[in-house]
Amino acid sequence: MAAIDIQSTFQALYYASLLSILSVGITLSYMTTKVFNFAHVRFAMVASYVAATIILLLAKAFNIHGDFAWHNMAGMQVRIPLPWWVYAVALISAFIVGGLVAVIQYYLVLRPLQKRGAGSMALMISTLGFDFILIAILFIYMTLPQIRRLTVKTVSLVGRVAFDSLRMDSLDIVISSGSVTIRGAVILAMIFALATIIGLYLLLTRTKLGVMMRSSIENPNLALVLGINVDRVFAITWFIAGAIAGLAGYLFIFATVYLTPVSPTTPSDQIIVSVFAGSIVGGINSVPGSIGGGFLIGLIEKFFVPLLSPVFGPGIVKYDKVFSMLAVALTLLFIPEGLASVNWKRVFRLGGAKGKES
Amino acid sequence: MPEPMLSLQKVNSGYGKFHILFDIDLEVPKGKITVVVGPNGAGKTTLLNTIFGLATIHSGKVIYKGRDITHVPAYKRAKMGMAYTLQLFNIFSTLTVKENLLLATYDIPEDEAKKRMEEVFQLFPRLKERLFQRAGTLSGGERQMLAIAISMLRKPELMLLDEPTAGLAPKLAKEVFEAIRHLGDQGYTIILAEQNAKGALEIGDEAVLIASGRIVARGKAQELLQDKDLSRKYLGLEV
Amino acid sequence: MVNAIVLTEQILSFIGVYTIVTLALNIKAGHTGIPDFGHAMFFGIGGIVVGNFVAHLAAALASHVVPGVTVHGVLAQNTETLNLLNTKYFPTHPGVAIGLLIFAIVVALVLGGIVGWLASLPALRLRGEYLAILLLATAEAVRIFVTYTKQIMGSTPTVGLATPDLFAWAGNSAAAATIFTVIMAIIVYWVFERIHHSPAGRLFRAVRDDEDAAKALGRDVVVVRRDAMIIGSAVAALGGVVYALNPFLGGGAVAAVSIFNRVFWTFWPWALMILGGMASNRGVVAATALVGILLIWPIRVYKVQLAKALGASLLGLDPNSFGNALEYLLLGILIILALALKPEGIIPEPPSKTLDFRKKAEKILKEEKIEL
Ligand SMILES: Nc1ncnc2c1ncn2[C@@H]1O[C@H](COP(=O)(O)OP(=O)(O)OP(=O)(O)O)[C@@H](O)[C@H]1O
Ligand SMILES: [Mg+2]
Questions:
Q1: How many CA atoms lie within 13 A of A108 on its CB side?
Q2: Is C255 close to A158, i.e. CB distance below 8 A?
Q3: What are the structural domains, with CATH classification, of chain B?
């Protein structure tokens, strides 16, 4: 019995890509504002709600067999491909909405608190407060009648309250060939991750804005002295971080069964600690580090841990996050600046030297 | 008397709640080098920060070219013709020398920027040889040159320099002072804060002496240099 | 309409358990400056003690008395076994129930203390946000481990384990549980007030305010932080016991998703502590009472009416979602407003002698530097 097949490999790649584009956002916002942003993954949630509604409303407005979402209530999955531009409009909205929410947090919460001299712990807690407000907005948004007509009722795990949640996975495109079926979301995630890497690389090294970003991060006072509006450069950085999270939110629509504002199983709450893990293991102050770190954590959880199941039994996969949390603990204790801060050349040279000696 | 380039009127400033400078009145004449001296922690850097908008102004006014700029944010002052070479962290050490220089000219048309670059290389030819080196790996002297070059590239009407000779060997320090005097002769208005009081006062025109956040003496640089009492008490100079 | 007595019981239970959990956080974060973002893991221990340990012990004691009850059944036939215990055993054995209650409290305090001590080990090396993230990650690892380990949480982690009703012998067991909750909260408050005004309390705050100064006076900062972690974590576990035994809180069951929930048992206590005032025990109680009353009375009970009154139903808003939204909105806005307008909290930390201590230490530091 193979522990891992093509399909689950792709699933792992999806997850790793998702984590890496979210981790890089945590790092971008940390580098500018020096705050671990607990609301970051909720940006993705907000974006995914907006994109989901846009898809549903457009489908309805143009009468593209408008009632596919309802079928789900009866448990049926009717897959009707929508015209490409519906997906495109939704994608752009997710990108922009994610970025805007981040900018709102930057200008309305973090900057004012920083100006009042709030310390790093206070800022971190304020991000929790902002997260709560976003959750509240999502709850209210979900309950608007126009939106509610698009939703399915479920009961939360805690059994306490009934949530209204969007059920969207039937929108995903499925590519099958023989016995292997690959979800469109999986391919899309990898494309997004690649686009993020290339986009950020070009932005940071080849554009004036990128150099301004790097300089404002390294030395805000000197940047100010050169006439750079550091506040605005940081706000733009936040926009980019949030917009990338918006891409992740777009993926949620297709990859998860239910979208709910908050619950232990809702995507954002389930993965936020893994996202932090990626950012920290890779390097909280390194853009490439955090991308790699997110990918690594994703692979640890969904690829390497399943590989252990022949030894420890299939139950081990449920403990996947224990391994990534272990990685966080070890990183923080021994290389707090993450894998990106390690002088790999030296490590290898030392290893080589030792090898020769023995 | 001609209108001063910059004047401070009864300025009280500091950082947030901290009150560092008290009742500062200061006039900086156009085209002259004004030297600010004083012991460690006197408030020289804070004075420059106040002028550039990097400190909190509690009361009083800062007037620049006849305009009240007390509440203008720092990055806008840079666009109004001020430049400032910081005392610490005065270059972007993770960027290359070239990127540093480009940042200084990012808001200036390209051919103009090129022209200015050539002027700077004439003064500091060493920088030209190290364009693609990461600025963090420059020697102490080269760093200071780069820092001053960054300010010069902006062709400022008012140039603030905070301890440009700190940590330099006497010979290098002399070179730097000469470069500053040269800039002064070209008509730059300069405010120079220095620990190395002797070297600074020798090339300066006007001078103020700060101690414990207050201006305790002012006058011509040469006069201050001659004043035995003040020199011994505040500057540790033996005349 | 809602029964006024039940409403009062609900509110008191909420205030009681959050007072305990938030005061426990306060000794670590408010008094000593350890940013514990893994608080929920200690709380969860208390839930396990009740749902698992106490249930097993009770089943062992009852297996000869009540037919159908077996130790094995606690996990294998959880609902049935606990049902038998709660209806056939505890009502007629008040002595055993009270004994088990004391057992639960003691074991939770000890286990919470031990885990707190373990968690304090990395606290010696890290500081600030990094430590916060480390503790968050640790708590997350513990949560996942507990969730999927059948021996701890049973085989249906989302449902969890039914809890023994150790107040079944009382006429009104819910009222008894509420009274127990309130009494525990009062005791915890009293103990923390005593600590606050003791030399140990001053030492805690000295370490928070100025580690170097505390060191200069020859205080072992590491030991002080460790002690705060042990005390705070032990009391948090006690909070878990209170939660699990109170039908208004636990609802007769403990599940990993609820007792290790970082939103409810880490983030909410943080919010309440910030709101009340770091290191201010009175502030914590005031904030908890304020939020508890607002949350349970208008929001949870009257959300339908409230939705109407606010015009929400005109928009067609669903009262349930609206109620959920209001809970998060209330907390989110309170956190941010408190940080912006009253960073010292609604009842700031009472002045103490910490300042003198610090000055003294600063003086010593200065002298040392001069000598150097
Ligand atoms: N960000 C700050 N917050 C609070 N106090 C500050 C801050 N920066 C400087 N100070 C204090 O302000 C006082 C004046 O500092 P300043 O840097 O202006 O001195 P200086 O004259 O430039 O000294 P030096 O010659 O050592 O550079 C010092 O006591 C310093 O500790
Ligand atoms: Mg200085």
A1: 13
A2: yes
A3: 1-81+156-239 (3.40.50.300), 90-155 (no CATH)
